[in-house]
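Researcher: Next entry in the queue.
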Amino acid sequence: MAKILTEEEFHGSNIPVYTPQGDENSARFKIKEGIANVLYTPAHENFDAPKGQQGSGKLIGKWLYNEQPDKQERLLKSGIELFMDSSLDPDASVGLHAHLDTEELYYLLEGQLTIDLVDKNGDVIQQILNPGDTHLILPGESHFVQAGEQGARFIAVAAKVTPIEANK
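Model: Structure for this entry, 168 residues:
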């Protein structure tokens, strides 16, 4: 298993998203031992969120692909910014945060997630996800994510959208 890096080690350095493990073509194939595994504790913390929605517990993110500015791999040509395999500890939460110019998809693999989605009108929609369920957040929306008592494992994919698409 690959070493688990702290958030500071990964984002505060030049540690790559992927370290080749041999002669694989790392633009097309990635061997699991070379994929960056990052511990976020608390998970996606947001001090500005209401009490109880600031993020708590541990999240381990396996950075499968990353085109965000701080760790851009320059592999993907689409608007996809991140493709991540995420594991939240039991009862851990991802702090409430807004998506201004990205849309994001969650696909729940294991466990349970409770999602509080704040739509563009400020209405809160709460939904419980079970394995096989998905969640879509659009630009201009916010969400808070809480794992169940068994924790949760999900795939997250986020894509940048142009300002014209974001306003539709």
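Model: Residues 4-166 form a domain with the Jelly Rolls fold (CATH 2.60.120.10).
Researcher: Noted, moving on.
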